[in-house]
Design a protein that fits this description.
single chain, 418 residues, alpha/beta, Rossmann fold, six-stranded mixed beta sheet, 13 strands, 15% strand, globular, binds pyridoxal-5'-phosphate, binds zinc ion
Length: 418
């Protein structure tokens, strides 16, 4: 907080103090935290950061809180060098930023919630809430439990059962709305206004978004304080992608990393791709769509930060692509088989889109590429059941096993001949 200059309107540039405001009173544009970068530059160093605990709070000078209150083990997830997957894709330098093992709720949302919940306490909010497609509900509920704050999470009524359980287990009030995410979000805006509760992704959104930067900080640090050529990011509400770029720009501005900024490519499911459609049509502001996709975490038809995604994709010289449900689930299986990582369909979406960008020649064989894996497959296991082999059931004797093994080997031989 020491280095926070204030909040700046993204559209008209008006400035505000860093309080609980979230839209510009002049033009209704979203507000963004700005910092005194010259002061940060004098106060921060690679070695100071490296000496701190491995959590997202190691970048405190570039985060909008006084002192962490939760998320002490959130962030600093593995950056996995994916050599077997790289070989299948025809790449030489591929990494996976693996937020499927983020703490405590196994998705990228633990980053944004650590920051928003801490700031909520600092601003004196008594109740924490969110409008969620699933992962955010779990993360807000867990962090609220940790902070001892009452919590209300709002979700569409048709989420995966494990996502609902993954929020309910922390005993918040879970409210399932008869409608899609965009309906939930609209309702929550009214509730935040009337009750004065702190909604992570509504009236605390400026702080929430800052938490997403930590994924970019970590990617650069874990690569040895350098930038990759490409990052492929999923897009739902559009928080993450522009903040990865903001993080890279800040690292350059404060003198921690030099070099060309990466291209940040956008990945969306074909059944919910307002941003990709806007990029293809040359629109500055995406037009809302009605989502219908297996990737429920990404099923946001009217993304709050959609125009920022469009702007950053263009500014960084990147591209976007969409993936069908089949391509998404194929990619989930490919990642599991080659790298031993089980992601949810959101991660399948980024990997499927990475394949498309390679095929289109946007990503070249010798480029360095980071693919963001933002959620864990165990929460959405139901979508994979009919894609995995059923166990081979046998009797208890060695002969039973060998008969089964024989049958299996014979089957494989037949399949190979076909
Ligand atoms: C929320 C979420 C995203 C992306 O969200 P943005 O709103 O675009 O920041 C990506 N993957 C998963 C698994 C998510 O839960
Ligand atoms: Zn404004």
């Amino acid at each position: 907080m020491k280095f926070v200059a204030g909040l700046t309107c993204h559209l008209c540039g008006a400035t505000y103090p860093a309080e609980a405001s979230w839209v510009c009173t002049d033009c209704l544009g979203p507000l963004e935290v700005s910092y005194d970068y010259a002061a940060v530059r004098g106060a921060i160093s690679r070695s100071a950061i490296e000496s701190r605990p491995p959590s997202l709070w190691r970048y405190l000078e570039l985060l909008p809180v006084h002192e962490p209150r939760t998320g002490f083990h959130s962030g600093f997830t593995p950056l996995v060098r994916a050599t077997r997957l790289a070989r299948e894709l025809g790449l030489s330098e591929l990494y996976l930023k693996d937020d499927s093992v983020n703490h405590p709720t196994f998705s990228y949302k633990d980053r944004v919630v650590s920051v928003a919940a801490t700031r909520a306490v600092e601003l004196g909010f008594q109740v924490l809430g969110c409008a969620s497609t699933g992962n955010l509900a779990g993360s807000v509920a867990a962090h609220a439990a940790r902070l001892g704050l009452p919590c209300y999470v709002f979700i569409p009524h048709d989420l995966e059962p494990a996502k609902v359980l993954g929020a309910a287990i922390y005993q918040p009030h879970v409210v399932a709305v008869d409608g899609n995410y965009d309906d939930v979000n609209r309702l929550c805006t009214q509730i935040a206004d009337r009750y004065g509760w702190g909604f992570a992704n509504i009236n605390l959104r400026a702080y929430y978004a800052e938490g997403a930067k930590t994924m970019g900080f970590e990617i650069a640090e874990q690569l040895g304080w350098r930038f990759p050529d490409h990052v492929v990011s999923p897009v739902a509400g559009g928080t993450l992608l522009p903040r990865i770029y903001k993080a890279f720009r800040e690292l350059r501005d404060v003198g921690l990393v030099s070099g060309t900024l990466p291209k940040i490519h956008a990945a969306q499911p074909a059944g919910s791709a307002p941003v990709i459609k806007a990029l293809e049509a040359g629109l500055e502001f995406p037009e809302p769509v009605k989502p219908d996709t297996v990737a429920k975490s990404l099923a946001i038809g009217n993304p709050a930060d959609g125009f920022q995604v469009v702007r950053v994709v263009k500014e960084s010289g990147a591209a976007g692509a969409m993936a069908t449900d089949d391509e998404i689930l194929d990619a989930v299986q490919l990642l599991a088989r080659t790298e031993g990582i089980f992601t949810e369909p959101a991660g399948g979406t980024t990997l499927a889109v990475t394949r498309t960008l390679i095929r289109r020649g946007v990503i070249k064989p010798n480029d360095s590429v980071v693919v963001c894996i933002t959620g864990n497959g165990y929460k959405t296991a139901d979508v994979m059941f009919d894609r995995v082999a059923v166990p081979t059931r046998i009797g208890r004797g060695l002969a039973d096993f060998e008969r089964a093994l024989g049958a299996r080997v014979a089957q494989q031989a037949a399949a190979a001949r076909a």
